[in-house]
Structure formats: structure tokens, C-alpha cells
Amino acid sequence: MVMGSPAREAEVVVVGGGPGGYVAAIRAASLGKDVLVIEERAELGGVCLLEGCIPSKALINAVEVMHAAAEAKRFGVTFGAPKVDVAGLRAFTQSVVGDLTKGIAGLFKKHGIEVVRGRARFEGQRMLTVEGGERIAFKHCVLATGSRAATLPGSDALGLWSNREALQVPEIPETLLVVGGGYIGLELGLVYAGLGSKVTVVEMLPNLLTGADPDLVQVVQRAAAKKLAGILTEAKVARIEKKGDGYEVAIEHKGETKTHVFSKVLVSIGRKPNSLDLGLEKTAIRPDARGFIPVDDRLRTAEPGIYAIGDVTPGPMLAHRAQAQGKVVAEVIAGHPAAFDARAIPAVVFTDPEVAWTGLTETDAKAQGIPVHVGKFPAAALGRAKGMGRTEGFAKVLSDPETKLLLGAAVVGPHASDLIAEATLAIEMGATLEDLMATVHPHPTLSELLLEAAEVGAGAAVHIYVKK
Ligand code: FAD
Description:
alpha/beta, binds flavin-adenine dinucleotide
């Protein structure tokens, strides 16, 4: 690339073709904008599609089917021992990812969105250069550069797994150490445990799944403990060394340091925003101390004409937030009166049982001194959950003690990921407990969990006795 070589012009340039970027591009094109996407990977879809949400859920589904088959003997149905065909598992996951990436490429074609491959950097406030080639002058630019896995310092040469390697299922190791007990570590750890590895999870903090209320975590942890070889909280990996085919790992726990040997080590200690090496110094944009790009509710950065969405911005690093912001940013660029002002962004952990929450959590309510009333209903009292043999979970709703406005909700149990959508809509619509209760829910379904929790919250419980 020659500095000063002629630049092509684009009305809207989106940097990054992940869930935030591709959604912003499609929505902007459907609003009549001329859109160009710059993506450094060979495929569209970003972390979520290529090495995150989608492949992980395909693997989780396979493991859950095996688990359900094993559990079926409780209902009087017995299956033979499952056989895992790793090549088949890999091929299925890759075909799911392949179909979805092709789907995005097809939608781009239909919307007339051009893709330029390569790494983009700012050359000026209105100019990007793409590594090895073009200069692109833009009117509007959306930064949707996402995030990458954080790594353990000094571990680059050790060949440790990140989510990327783990999701390719290169092998089923005899023993696996998962460093980090957040949702990614726990989901992937349980996949490998289901496939036959002896999995140990090490978490530095006192609890797994930081951010989730302890009563939810307790249910997940109890179930996970039956499947994992070990869960060590308040534990720290002090040293990792490659030894033969495996790893020697020193773990500090309860004041003692012990050395263990593992076949593989998966590191999932969080994610970092991709804001480095973008040439931001050529603009007015200054990432915060953690590397996130600050934006306002219209997703505008400090540089007029440049917007940012998704994992590179402060907030929950989740695909559905990135996608929702992608739609808003396109509408803002098109001059619509749009803003990203979600009252509730659901969080889901696809463990077995699943756990999902939305809006205010009890932990946050306590920390922020917000008074809440909590209504909780156990799955053990729900007909559908009993019929499924899945009575370990519960639902809870948090409401304003005065107005009865729904402020938050959580579900732990099967299909929590789907059930939480109703509560999210209710919070967005400003629903009260009465509104949830007056909505007729189909019977017998797991959706009744939230209805029953609302009834408990309103002092109108029917299916459990709550002392007044
Ligand atoms: P990304 O998906 O990170 O995409 C950014 C894109 O920008 C990438 O393709 C990258 O190559 C490209 N790029 C970056 N810099 C440049 C540049 N300078 N030039 C050109 N291209 C560039 N979220 C959920 O909501 N639900 C889940 O179940 C879930 N599961 C997950 C499981 C795992 C194992 C992981 C790792 C993540 C998971 N996530 C999940 C999180 C989710 O993947 C992210 O929140 C989401 O991908 C963020 O989307 P994004 O568009 O902001 O960025």
C-alpha cells in the first residue's frame, strides 16, 4: 500500500463481520445505505459463529443427548452405552458453522454488501487502509472488531488450548484442566467431561459463574460436581510446564501448592476487546483502561462519524447485545430516532441444567441498595418438570416492593435459555407481577415456572404453600 494512493469511497464501512458487524451491515443496507464490510478472517460470523456460541452449543447438544439417554433408565427406558465418533461430532459441528457462514454470505450478496478481506486500520479520521491493499474513505464507520481470549502470561509457547482449539475437538484428552470457572470454561469443561475426559476446573474467585446469583450457581455447581473430576475455587494456577505429552501444573489452593499432571490445559480466563493496532490514535477515540471503546446510547464514539458496537464496547460481551446494537447503529446512521437503551440484557449459561437471568440480579440489588421483593418457585412443584424428571431448578422474579414492577428474573433448569425471553420482554414492556399473572400460560409447560414465581412474589401462590 502506498500512502496517498487513490482511495475508493464508501458511505458506510463496517469493520468486523461478527454478529455485531454483519447485522449492522444488513440492516444498514436494508435501509438503503451503500455498505462495505472489512473482515480479516476468511469467513464471516466472527467469534460467535466460528469459535464461540454456535459450535459450543452443537457440542453441548450432543453431550446432553448422551446424558438424557443415560438418565432415561429412571423412566424405565434403557439405551446401550453411547459410542463417541469424534470425526462425526467434528463434521456435524463444522457443517452447522459452514451452513450459517454461507447463509450470511448469501444475505450479503442479496443486499449488495461488498466484503473486503484484510485487517483495517485508520489512516485518518475519515480514511481506513486495509492491510496489503486498499484505502477506503468513508462517511460513516462502525467498529465491530469484537474480542479475543485472554491468555496466561508467558504461556504462548506451551500449546495450551483456548476456546478455538477446544471447539475443534482435536482429541478427547484423558485429563483436562480448565483454567477459569466462568461460563465458557464451565460449558466447555462439561462438554469434555461428557465426552469422557476427567476434567478439573480451577477458579480464582470464591464462586463459579461470577455475576450470577449464588442460589443459581449452587444448583449448577451441584450438578457439575457429579460430572467433573474436581472444582477448585479460590485456587490459582502458579506454574504450568510442558512434560512429555502433557502438562505439570502447580495449583495454589487453601494455602498449599500441589503439583498435578494433565493431558491438556484449556485457558478461559476472560476476553479482551480488540481495540489495539486499529490506528485509533489517528482519531479522537481513546479506549478506556481495559481497552473498551466508550460509546453513547446512539453508539457514537468520541470521533464524529465513527461508531462502535459489540464486544469492543463496555457491557456484557454477548452476541445478542452485539446484534441488538448492530440494528440500532444502522438506524442511527440512517437518521432514525434510535438508541440502545435496553432495560434488560439476558445472560445464559448453557450448562446442564441451564441458568439464565435478565434485568436486575439479587446480587446487584444488594450492592446498589435497591429494595426488591423476591418470588421464588421450585421446579419440584411443577407438573411438567416432574414429568421430565428435572426437578432440580427454580425460577425467581424480582419486583419493586411498592409498584410491583418486574425488575429482574432468573431461571435455572432445562430450557432456561428459552424461558428467559418472556421475562426480558416483560421487563422491557414495564410489566408488573399482575401482568405476568394475568397472562395465561400453556399447561403443562416449563413456562409456568415464571408465572408461579410471579404468584409467589405477589403473595398469591397456588401450587406451593407460602406462610403469610
Ligand atoms: P466478534 O464476534 O469478535 O467479531 C469481530 C470480527 O471482527 C472478527 O471476525 C474479527 O476477525 C474481525 N476483526 C477484528 N479486528 C479487525 C480489523 N482490524 N480488521 C478487520 N477485521 C477485524 N455469546 C452469546 O450471546 N451466547 C453464547 O452462547 C455465547 N457463547 C460463547 C462461547 C464461546 C466459547 C465464546 C468464546 C464466546 C461466546 N459468546 C456467546 C460471546 C460471543 O461470541 C461474542 O459476544 C460475540 O461474538 C461478539 O460479537 P462482535 O460482533 O462484537 O465481535
